[in-house]
Amino acid sequence: TVRARVREAMASAEEEPWSLEPVGLSVEKSHPCGNIDPQAVVYIADLLLTNAAQALVNAGVDPKGKKAAGAVSAYVARLDDMKMEPSDAIDPSTGKAKSFGSRLKAALEASAAAAKSTWRKVFSADPAKREAELRSARDELGKEGGHLEAGHQQRIAEYLINRFDSDGAARCDRVFPTPAALKQHESEGCEFRTVVCPHGGCSEQVSARLLAVHESRCGRRPVQCGHNGGCGALIAADDATSHVAHLCPRRSVPCPFASAGCRPPGGLLAEALASHCHGPPPTSWMRALAAASAGADPEHTSTPSASSLSPGAAAAADAPWAKHPIEGRQGDRIVTPTIRSDPEAELDISEGIHHHMVLMARTIEAQRIAIEELRKEAAAARADREQMRSAMAAMRGGIIAELAVGVAAGVKERKATDKALSASKAAWEKRAGKIESHVSSVDTQLRKVTHEVAEMKRVPR
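Above: the chain sequence. Below: its structure as tokens.
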């Protein structure tokens, strides 16, 4: 039939477009690339959402009301006819040609400004109120399930790029004669193809032409630590601050015995902490111990004079290791200072060391108390977690019970409905049987009357 032939022709046209070659004409098939810069899509989608919200605010339409869908649809429909500045338009502030993004932004803002009402002109003079309304409208339109959710924004942004980007600023406008050439271009040579950042921990998608710019700014790009001479470690750029504060071996750290007066003059690096603590005692510490044996405050002690110390402390202060700074190491050999034999000085030094050990014991006790407090807090947290789990289990059980009751009630109601429908069906079937019987009786009477009329016509008058 004619319809069947038309269907076959349409099906063949969908599978392979008609060609003019059989009638002596050759047509070169074109295959456009169509790749679009993903960052341009994100930028224009954000502009679209902002200006759609601005259009609703200007028109006085509630984004949660019934008129919001129609207002958004009308705004999107007007975008197809919006006026774009020419590609050679000059930006007066820079003296250079305006970019496609700036020209499209101006067109979108002009389209949003066209949606105005007299009510808005009179009652929306407060900038703070308009800003709050704009944020609320933007959030309402862009949320999941909104009139302009993310998927709609992306599709409209891609359409606007294809519609107005005639210079190929945000899309690839190249055309290829064969599908194979197009495929090779899209996978290898297209500068607008989407690529993923190669740095670990970053999943940003950018166009191939902007990959180098993104890599130079990416927070996960590897950088070499340069703190205090640099430790040479390769770390992510975003982790540099944390590395310098907690992990870098070139960071400055205090001596664990700083409370006893050990404060190296040039500071102490983390990488030298172990050798510092296991080497000979520094001069400042030993002077502080000598001062502590005389009853002074180790935290605020300067170099003591011989007249201010007891005989034993003065002897300790006059010792060679108390007068001259000790570096602690000479090459790879630990230097052991030569101490003058003086029983009274040794006794005072022993008392200073004892004083320091008392301070250490107090510090350890304070740390032990702090650890016990932390353990108590952890136990309380575990108890709260168990209580929360129990509450959630009870809540889950209650919800399941309510659902079971609801399902049982629904099943019972369904059975009652099925029973009522069955009874109604039986009644209607019974009534239909009666109607059929009555129709049959009437038909029989009609045939009888027809027969009698025919007999009467044959009887002569």
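The first strand starts at residue 31 and ends at 32.
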